[in-house]
Amino acid sequence: MSDNGRKNELSRAKVRSIVDYTLTVQAASPEIRDLAMLIVGVNNVRDFVVANLTRAKGETNALADIDALSKANQIDAVVDATEMGKDRLKAIWKTLSALDIVTGAMNASDPKAAGAIVRALSGMDYEQKRELAQAAALLGAN
């Protein structure tokens, strides 16, 4: 019971929304679902749905960073990527690695890693961009 004496209840609409989102995740292609789960850092649909539905409002993820960097000119993108810091650069690298856009270990130098990421983003083909867009849509489908 909450402080005001009423039970904490989920509305039917909220439960329906959660179930619908879970079904959307399950219906996604395995490649897109796996990419989205990789980005969130989980390895099953249940944990993905919970993590995605409970993430902080405005919390960034690698796909949002990739999208922002892809839209900037290359010089601004390198500066912006460098300012993101090592943890976000690693998340971007991991995502791009999952799509075979980059290979090997990320450079330990943030500016060099940022440059490599921006070069890789500028060289993406249609299929890679489509997969990233579908994973982003799955993350935002809730």
Which labels suit this protein?
single chain; about 140 residues; about 0% strand
Provide structural commentary.
With 142 residues, this protein is mainly alpha-helical. The chain has one domain (11-142). The protein has helices spanning 12-27, 30-40, 45-54, 62-71, 74-84, 86-98, 110-122, 126-139. α2 packs across α3, α4 packs antiparallel against α5 (74-84) and α5 (74-84) crosses α7. The longest helix has 16 residues, at 12-27. The two termini are 27 Å apart.
Write the layout of secondary structure elements.
Layout: H1 12-27, H2 30-40, H3 45-54, H4 62-71, H5 74-84, H6 86-98, H7 110-122, H8 126-139
Helix pairs in contact: 1-3, 2-3, 2-8, 4-5, 4-6, 5-7, 6-7
Précis, in short:
The chain is an all-alpha fold and 142 residues long. The chain has 8 helices and no strands.
